[in-house]
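Q: Cupin type-1 domain-containing protein, please. Structure only.
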Amino acid sequence: MTAQFAQPGARGFSLPGEPVPFFLEAGEGERAHLFDSLVTVLLSKDETQGQFGVFTLAAPKGEAIPTHAHADVHEIFFVLGGRARVWIQDAAGERLERLLKPGDFGYVPAGLPHTFRVEADDTRILGVCTGGFERFFAAAGTRTDSFALPDPPYAPSPERLAAAGREFRNEFRFDLRLDG
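A: Structure for Cupin type-1 domain-containing protein:
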């Protein structure tokens, strides 16, 4: 196998789509805007034979995202810069809360309701998830060539958000507030 560089596509840079070595320069990857965030997929299920996906999320200080759960998707948060507060409801129904700072790590096992809120401008998070879920952000949001945060924020229609939720097994729990 020969190492590859990501190739410019119609919207940002497209990943190889198969398990071959490749490199990305800073900011490259499959970018999408969702609400006030820029999500960049660095590695997808296509390159890992369905095992996992890797993405970054850049966002300003803002509101918590809706509480949600993924029945079969594990998710990690690794804060590269800024701060993010993560809430998780564990299997016993207890609410766990932690403010993550640069270098801090959080893990959400599949099936547990969780949410997070960016607590500082210029926050960057590295996320790793079960393969396939990394593409939720583009399905719910909109692909972009931009390296900047969306201005104005991109608010998907309720129908688009619900359809992406169904496709990527993301159950929104509007009845459950963990961030209160």
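A: Brief note, in case it's useful. The chain has two helices and 16 strands.
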